Amino acid sequence: MTHPALEPEIRPATPADEADISLVTASAFGQEGEARLVDELRSCGALVLELVAVDRDGRVVGHVAFSRVTGAGAGHRLAISCLAPVSVSPDRQRGGVGSALIRAGITALREQGEDLVLVLGPPAYYPCFGFDAELAKKVAAPYAGAAFQALALTAAARAALPIEVTFATPFEAFE
Ligand SMILES: CC(C)(COP(=O)(O)OP(=O)(O)OC[C@H]1O[C@@H](n2cnc3c(N)ncnc32)[C@H](O)[C@@H]1OP(=O)(O)O)[C@@H](O)C(=O)NCCC(=O)NCCS
């Protein structure tokens, strides 16, 4: 039998969720920087998709943000986004919430016609969603290395690589 509390609903974030999203993000990372990054990405209009995981009692227990990435050269026709940050409340981590958010996000981006998704995160976590560090080597960005991973959602994305990309401005100030 499944436990209802272990199956949060995944839905698009609304303005009413913003304070809860800040709390979840800050508690997941143990600092304020990522919560500020989400606010800045939202206020500059860079967010392509924002999802929350909500418990039956209405509590927001997880959040994922995808922001616009700009491709140069052959990449300028592609819709490219970046997954960051993804946060799950510390008391709900390792229960599948993060994976559910990421999977739902990728599905929604595919439906929206997004071509390519990038992420900078643990190389042990993201490959199970299809992210690939080898593919990301064909994406010239301020980031490189095993943590920088890419997921092509369309043939157009694969055909356009290699490309150069620029992330939304709030990432420049973020360490
Ligand atoms: C990373 C995070 C979003 C994952 O969400 P989650 O709900 O805890 O993850 P899930 O339950 O869906 O998946 C758990 C699996 O993911 C993997 N995993 C989770 N966090 C990981 C990490 N930091 N590094 C490597 N693997 C990780 C593990 O394989 C884990 O399986 P296990 O419990 O059997 O070892 C969440 O742990 C979190 O908010 N962490 C703090 C903030 C953070 O680091 N965000 C990501 C920055 S890119």
UniProtKB/TrEMBL annotation:
Keywords: Transferase. The keyword Transferase applies. Transmembrane segments: none annotated. The keyword Transferase applies. Residues 8-164 form the N-acetyltransferase domain. It comes from the Bacteria. InterPro entries: Acyl_CoA_acyltransferase (IPR016181), GNAT_dom (IPR000182). GO terms for molecular function: acyltransferase activity, transferring groups other than amino-acyl groups. This is Putative acetyltransferase. It comes from Stappia indica.
